[in-house]
Design a protein that fits this description.
Structural class of chain B: mainly alpha
Oligomer: heterodimer
Helix content of chain A: over 70%
Order of helices and strands of chain A: HEEHHHHHHHHHHHH
Number of domains of chain A: 1
Number of helices of chain A: 13
Radius of gyration of chain A: 23 Å
Number of strands of chain B: 0
Number of domains of chain B: 1
CATH architecture of chain B: Orthogonal Bundle
Structural class of chain A: mainly alpha
Helix content of chain B: over 70%
Largest sheet of chain B: none
Number of helices of chain B: 11
Shape of chain B: globular
CATH architecture of chain A: Orthogonal Bundle
CATH superfamily of chain A: MetI-like
Number of strands of chain A: 2
């Protein structure tokens, strides 16, 4: 019964992944593909500083987006789980997920309208008299990319944390307070450690996919805000150098996976160290 | 109380771009900026007469309908197997099937592009987009259908078979009606995701662009931006309507199998 989806995933995911790994060891000379095994693409990525710079910036942006998204999302998940009446919880979750599923491209574009030189934020702030000149640090740079991505991935962070919070046995919190902890310390010593699996899931589910987004950096990043996904896209579509693009995609995937595994490992140690 | 205010502020942040959309769609100026100048429906009228847009919409609908059907069929297989049977490597296999959910979309896009163009040399068409969309929508379908299948009692289907129904007719007459709301919810979600997906479609679309790819083309031309706003308004309204249907059906499905609603699709 499980075989149709399994076969589909193997055919459409495992096999293509194998293909780009193979591809990354080949080279492209204009229109002809040279299929001799070589590490030339990886050497080029290693030696040309632009690739390292792009990768570094991408990892930095993904890291910031993850941090911002998870920190902003946690109180919302906490509020819905602990302070909303059970019959209204699904309404709240529904409201949170709706924007996530509507017109991704246009949503990103509208952030340009909000953050732009004559945008909503700037005209608003000038009208109240808080600033005299439009703020320029919020469009066409890395900040703008981070704000927009944090918006796009918000529900992805809220849902896993919410699920973890829902699983917490509420009597544990009462017990902790009966034993003399304050509300504040109960949160840090009981609630937060128990919610950790959800936080970890949220971190991974935001961090890994953000590395693959090229729309937001293209529209919001300006010249200095391009990321590694833009380079992969350019190599494949504009420069017609698929092998180099493939190698770049693989390097990016390896970096993201390594950082994620390190994060999961450190988190396990931290949780074990506490108990 | 402060938490509630924060949560509401957060919702405002989430909805900020969507609220602006209709404002500019009906605004009588070619520049997308405040202050608003006047009311017009001109941008919507332009949508009616743009042939390229209609072709892109047809393509997207075709892709989204097939994606919804195929990913839901695969989702039913996986959710049913997960809920009712034990088999070797169950956790590993069910985990593997969910992987496209967390994979960066550009990886899916470029790997399928390489396979389609360089290895099999089939040209890019709607079918290459469908193949990729089914891959990324199936995990969502599985997540929704799991809710429908999880608390289904396997004994009911067995009882039907003991009473003389075949395996298939037992599934069709007993299980299917119980999980039907979940199936429709899954189709609506997959349809919405596919209709809106750009990152992968941009790589795999053939000579005829899908709707998001067409919109991407328009975003380069400042003069066409008001029309994009009008189009976006229609798309957002459509998505919200579809998602609301999906949510209502999902709840009904949960109630039908006697499950307490824990809320949310995932």
């Amino acid at each position: 019964m499980v075989s149709p989806p399994l076969i589909y995933v193997l055919l459409m995911l495992a096999f293509p992944m194998g293909a780009i790994i193979l591809f990354s060891f080949w080279t492209q000379e204009f229109m002809t593909l040279d299929t001799t095994f070589t590490l030339a693409n990886y050497r080029e990525i290693w030696e040309k500083p632009i690739f390292a710079a792009l990768l570094q910036r991408s990892l930095f942006v993904s890291g910031c987006v993850t941090l911002v998204t998870v920190i902003l999302a946690f109180p919302v998940a906490y509020f819905v789980s602990f302070h909303v009446a059970p019959e209204r919880k699904s309404l709240w979750l529904f409201l949170i997920t709706i924007p996530f599923w509507t017109s991704y491209l246009i949503r990103v574009f509208l952030w340009k309208v909000i953050l732009g030189y004559n945008g909503v934020v700037n005209t608003g702030l000038i009208k109240i008299g808080l600033i005299d000149e439009p703020l320029t640090f919020i469009l066409y740079n890395v900040n703008a990319v981070i704000i927009t991505l944090a918006h796009a991935f918000a529900p992805f962070a809220i849902l896993p944390i919410f699920v973890a919070l829902e699983k917490i046995d509420r009597s544990l919190l009462e017990a902790s307070q009966d034993l003399g902890e304050s509300k504040f310390t109960t949160f840090f010593r009981v609630t937060l450690p128990l919610a950790m699996p959800g936080v970890v899931a949220a971190v991974l589910i935001v961090f890994i996919p953000t590395i693959g987004d090229y729309v937001t950096p293209e529209l919001m990043g300006g010249a200095g805000g391009k990321l590694v996904a833009n380079m992969i896209q350019t190599q494949f579509l504009a420069l017609n150098n698929a092998p180099l693009g493939a190698a770049l995609a693989i390097v990016a995937m390896i970096c993201v996976t390594a950082i994620s595994l390190l994060f999961v490992f450190l988190n396990r140690r931290w949780l074990r160290g506490r108990s | 109380m402060t938490l509630r205010i924060y949560a509401i502020a957060y919702l405002v942040f989430l909805y900020a771009p969507i609220i602006l959309l209709p404002l500019f769609a009906f605004n009588d100026a070619t520049i997308i900026a405040f202050p608003l100048s006047g009311f017009t429906t001109e941008w919507f009228q332009q949508l009616m007469t743009t042939q390229a847009l209609h072709r892109a919409a047809q393509n997207s609908l075709f892709i989204a309908v097939l994606t919804a059907l195929l990913s839901t069929i695969l989702g039913v297989c996986a959710a049913r197997a997960g809920a009712m049977y034990d088999f070797p490597l169950k956790r590993g296999i069910l985990g593997l099937v969910m992987i496209p959910l967390v994979l960066p979309e550009i990886i899916v896009a470029v790997s399928l592009l390489v396979v389609a163009v360089q290895i099999f040399d089939v040209g890019l068409s709607n079918w290459t987009v469908i193949a990729a969309h089914v891959l990324i929508c199936t995990p969502f379908s599985i997540a929704i259908l799991n809710g429908a299948f999880q608390n289904l009692d396997p004994a009911m289907e067995e009882a039907a078979m003991d009473l003389g129904e075949s395996r298939w007719s037992a599934f069709r007459l007993v299980t299917l009606p119980l999980v039907m709301p979940g199936i429709i919810a899954s189709m609506l979600i997959a349809f919405t995701i596919s209709l809106d997906e750009f990152i992968i479609a941009f790589f795999l679309t053939g000579a005829n662009p899908t709707m998001p790819v067409y919109i991407w083309g328009l975003l380069r031309f400042p003069a066409s931006l008001p029309v994009v706003m009008a189009l976006g308004t229609i798309l957002v309204a459509l998505s919200i309507a579809l998602l609301t249907c999906a949510e209502l059906l999902r709840r009904r499905g949960m109630a039908r199998v006697g499950l307490k609603d824990k809320g949310g699709f995932i």
